Amino acid sequence: MIRVPYNGLRRMNIQVRHVAATAMTAAVVGSSLAFAQPAAPPLEQSSSPQVGEKVSHMISRPTTAIEYAKNLKFIIDHDLLLQDDFYTEANLKDVFNLEEVSITNNGSTPERYISIAANPPAYIFPRIMASPLFGGSVPGATLVGGKSSHALGLITAGINFQLTEDGPSFVETQQIFGNDFVLFSSPTPPPHGPLANASAPHGNETWRKEDFAHNQNKVVTISFNAAAQLTGITVKVDQNKGVERDN
Fold first, then answer.
1. In principle, which of 23, 24, 104, 113 could form an S-S bond with 148, CB 3.0–4.6 Å?
2. Taking the CA atoms of the chain, what radius of gyration do you get in angstroms?
3. Which DSSP state fits 102?
4. What is the pLDDT of residues 67-101, one digit of tens each?
């Protein structure tokens, strides 16, 4: 049972907005991520890789990009994406300070899935001017994710948090997530417009970390814009409950 404190959430009738990044949900939950080459250097070279900040609890109703990142670090460290209770409306609104969230759940079946999509508040992540094709502006941050449970015991879960600007710096991100990541050499172009030239060290870089734990495989990907500000955190977890853990 997830225990996340939250303060007096009001019941409201949800009008689900079309989220620009909803199409990424399938990629987050169901696709296999490419991994970095072993020869690449570790994140911000160090003689002893650090695991990042020890986040002891989640922040109720986060109001900054750093607080969102810390909540995601807690979610990753405690495998909350694998727990059904994580995907309740009340929990998601509290953990990500959401006004509205779209949740799709096909119920208790052998092949079960839950998917979520939301735009964090514009007063935290202001909307970005865009082409009229996108309505003149796009959300400053998007969140998609979900969990799939299969009859043979395989559970796949993931989350993709994207922000356009004013994210934590490379150093701040490293302090939260650690420096045991590997550089992935192919920058991902942004969805709206060309990739700008890097204006700071680590600009336009993407880093990944893969962890194996008995019957579980976890991949965390973090991306930075041209100014070396965090623009994306993607997490994918595969767990095979049909494989017994080592004693």
1. 113
2. 18
3. E
4. 999 999 999 999 999 999 999 999 999 999 999 99
